[in-house]
Amino acid sequence: MAALINVPSKAKRGDIIEIRTLTSHIMETGFRHTADGKLVPRNIITSFICRYNGAEVFRADLFPAIAANPYLSFFTVAKESGKFEFEWIGDNGYSSTASASITVE
Amino acid sequence: MISWRAIAAATLLAAAAPVLLAGEIPPDARRSGYAFMGADTRAMQDDDTSNPGMLFVLDGEALWAKKIGSADKACADCHGDAQSSMKGVAARYPAFDKALGRPVTLDQRIILCRANHQQATPLPYESRDLLALSAFIAHQSRGTPITAGDDPQAKPFVEQGRVLYMQRAGQLNLACTNCHDDNFDKRLAGAPITQAQPTGYPLYRLEWQTLGSLERRLRSCMSGVRAQAYDYGSPELVALELYLMSRAHGLPMETPAVRP
């Protein structure tokens, strides 16, 4: 699924940097009914993980009350040049990934 | 006595604003819905990495390059790089189609290309792929001033749209003009009433939690006054769209906008 990632391309060692992620997902709550009364099954992202050169730096659990196309923003410390990897996991075996690189001077 | 007063009032109005029709917003007072929003919603629209509409633009970019249909052709095979070939296109839609003898919306143009040039299955109105393609195309016009309706052949349809816009409808018996010309800057329940400028479509509406077309927006205003909404793609909706675009003449396109 399409994702939009905002990671600074450059930072100084020790800087606190903001990371913003936005991904496509309907986040169907599982509480809604169709016009003829059938329950629309739940279909949400349940967790999000961010790894920085392989080490987990941020994790979030998501719930039905979170809006469609979840937007998450968080902070971390720029330690070394390398790669941020993002992973979204959800109902029905849903999984989606994205990555972004950073140069730390 | 009463009729004399009415005539006097009418002359006063005419003297104050000679070129405008009653209720119309003067060109320099026209403002996009963006100007009516709170700081948070504006910030969401302004930053391409937090504007959820951009997710659809990305999807549209992928679809643009995908070969489909029995012609096995992608949009890009005929139109090349959308950044140049589609620049400014959305700002002049709905546009008059000579072969059909009537104006077509950008969505209808995409549907026509799918049918005639790709020989692919039709995309339903408001389907994700259609919205993604039209968002991708309209995004290439971001910042371009709107010129739709300038074509002399489109004029009768602009006029048809204007009549519909001025016409009271529904159980609440309200016309578009009653809210969007006479009462903008006021509020309806919690929502600001805007000038109904169609600058940002298709746009991401937080209430919808998805991207939606201008027609979807117009249909919800119609159900809002408890009128029977016109069908997607109906001549009435196309005419209304064309009138709104001509009324927004010169305002810059901002697709994909974000609205509450």
UniProtKB/TrEMBL annotation, chain A:
Domain of life from the UniProt record: Bacteria
Coiled coil stretches, renumbered: none
InterPro entries in UniProt: Ig-like_fold (IPR013783), Ig_E-set (IPR014756), SoxZ (IPR030995), SoxZ_dom (IPR014880)
Domain Sulphur oxidation protein SoxZ: 8-100
Pfam families named among the record's database cross-references: SoxZ
Annotated protein name in UniProt: Thiosulfate oxidation carrier complex protein SoxZ
